[in-house]
Amino acid sequence: MQSDITIYYILTESCNCSCEFCIRQNMQIEKHMELTQALFYLNKLNDFYKDSSIVLTGGEPFLYPNIECIISESLKLFSRVFS
Hints:
Helix content: 25-40%
Number of strands: 3
């Protein structure tokens, strides 16, 4: 559809930082999206926004337990992947 779309995809609410400027302060909780759910929605997003960019975010996306799998799948589906 549109190629100038950037999707911000929140994988986790966990964060190991406490940046004073962050709008998500005190995010020391362990709350992650399940892998099967995360992959399902990645594919659904790709169905609607084929040539878009995706930003893997959260909290801290690298605290997501299956981040390697999510990055690998994102690289297959989207034109640009950021975190």
